[in-house]
């Protein structure tokens, strides 16, 4: 087992090095943000845990698409004293640079200390590294052992297309019976309608039959090069499991992979339901919405967990949700006359108040304009009249302000009374229920 896991370490290192080298070559196009301060972190423990707290100005720059760059956990960045325009700027003897890995998202303030240049995201690489260096005797390695042990009776079935399914030893007691029952059932007809080839259909039916076995836990491995229909097969399998009311957890090493599987699965589900989104309650997609770019996939919003939480939060809001509106309907049905009078009173007040205020403002503006014109004409004629016009203007402005304040005070008083009546009505409903 150790030999098998170690055989992947050097290829992983080489793949990471190649990706980093490619990022270095397009350094001029990389997102950049300004650093404002660098301090020792609370977890700073040399010589191994060299952790720092770096504050950044995230609005400093954006890429060519106009997106502001904000460093995220798992990203590899270069810390430089000036903004690099090419890879040669990093090799400058006078201006050095350091490579840093973001462990946690921090706070951001304004200023400038240096630059953080995005290189690559190593989240997936770190996950693979941790899996390869896991405890060989730990529980997580059981699945791999079951596939690799020489006495597991693993067989490979290869068809015309480059699609291979490796199957662990099936249960001799129930596999053939379950396989036959699924094949002749309605779900078997549904699977055959997915336009799968022979290998893909065999993979789906075999997994369904293994799921029904209660004697042992079976591991199935479906693999093949790109373009051989693995995602299509997994989507068909998920749909079949959903039809059989089977709780299923689907994981993927990258966000792109999980979005692709979810899209394929959702397409099959939407074709089978009679009403638009009714029936999607048992399907949930969750993850980091920013890294998944979920807003670019409108078709997946109906099953995305964060989107559902926001919708339910609005539905259960105490002053604007379902309960509030149901209480209003109950109040209208129990006391329709009182509710009607309140509605009429509020409507008349808003209309009369707004019209009166508008008329007052127009009249005062007209008087002020007339007085200004008269003042200009009489300014050179009689200083006494000019002085009177100035005082008249001050009085009119004062009256106008007082009327507006009075209107606002009355409106506030009315709103307070309305709120008091609403609370009294709500308490009454609570006592009744």
From TrEMBL:
One of its GO terms (molecular function) is helicase activity. InterPro entries: DNA2/NAM7-like, DNA2/NAM7_AAA_11, P-loop_NTPase. Transmembrane segments: none annotated. SUPFAM superfamilies: P-loop containing nucleoside triphosphate hydrolases. Residues 196-403 form the DNA2/NAM7 helicase helicase domain. Pfam families: AAA_11. This is DNA2/NAM7 helicase helicase domain-containing protein. The lineage of its organism: Eukaryota, Viridiplantae, Streptophyta, Embryophyta, Tracheophyta.
């Amino acid at each position: 087992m150790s030999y098998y896991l170690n055989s992947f370490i050097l290829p992983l290192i080489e793949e990471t090095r190649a990706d980093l080298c490619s990022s270095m070559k397009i350094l001029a196009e990389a997102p950049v943000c300004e650093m404002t301060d660098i301090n020792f972190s609370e977890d700073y423990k040399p010589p191994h845990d060299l952790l720092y707290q770096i504050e950044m100005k995230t609005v400093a720059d954006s890429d060519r698409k106009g997106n502001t760059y904000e460093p995220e956990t798992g990203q590899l960045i270069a810390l430089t004293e000036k903004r690099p325009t090419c890879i040669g700027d990093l090799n400058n003897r006078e201006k050095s640079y350091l490579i840093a890995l973001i462990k946690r998202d921090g706070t951001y303030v304004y200023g400038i200390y240096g630059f953080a240049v995005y290189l690559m995201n190593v989240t997936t690489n770190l996950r693979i590294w941790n899996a390869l260096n896991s405890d060989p005797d730990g529980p997580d390695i059981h699945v791999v052992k079951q596939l690799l042990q020489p006495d597991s009776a693993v067989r490979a079935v290869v068809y015309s297309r480059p699609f291979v399914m490796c199957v662990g030893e099936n249960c001799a007691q129930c596999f053939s019976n379950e396989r036959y029952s699924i094949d002749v059932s309605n779900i078997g007809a549904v699977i055959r309608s997915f336009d799968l080839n022979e290998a893909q259909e065999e993979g789906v039916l075999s997994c369904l039959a293994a799921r029904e076995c209660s004697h042992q836990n079976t591991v199935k491995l479906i693999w093949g090069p790109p373009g051989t229909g693995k995602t299509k097969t997994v989507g068909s399998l998920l749909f079949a499991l959903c039809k059989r009311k089977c709780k299923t957890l689907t994981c993927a090493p990258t966000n792109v992979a999980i979005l692709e599987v979810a899209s394929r699965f959702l397409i099959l589900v939407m074709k089978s339901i009679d009403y638009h989104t009714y029936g999607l309650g048992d399907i949930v997609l969750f993850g980091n919405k920013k890294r998944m770019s979920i807003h670019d996939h409108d078709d997946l919003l109906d099953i995305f967990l964060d989107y559902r939480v926001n919708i339910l939060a609005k539905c259960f809001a105490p002053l604007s949700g379902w309960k509030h509106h149901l209480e209003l309907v109950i109040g209208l049905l129990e006391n329709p006359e009182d509710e009607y009078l309140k509605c009429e009173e509020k409507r008349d007040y808003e209309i009369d108040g707004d019209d009166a205020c508008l008329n007052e403002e127009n009249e005062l503006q007209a008087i002020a304009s007339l007085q200004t014109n008269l003042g200009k004409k009489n300014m050179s004629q009689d200083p006494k009249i000019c002085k009177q016009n100035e005082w008249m203007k001050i009085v009119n402005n004062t009256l106008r302000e007082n009327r507006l304040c009075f209107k606002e005070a009355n409106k506030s008083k009315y709103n307070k009374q309305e709120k008091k009546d609403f609370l009294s009505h709500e308490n009454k409903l609570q006592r009744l229920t």
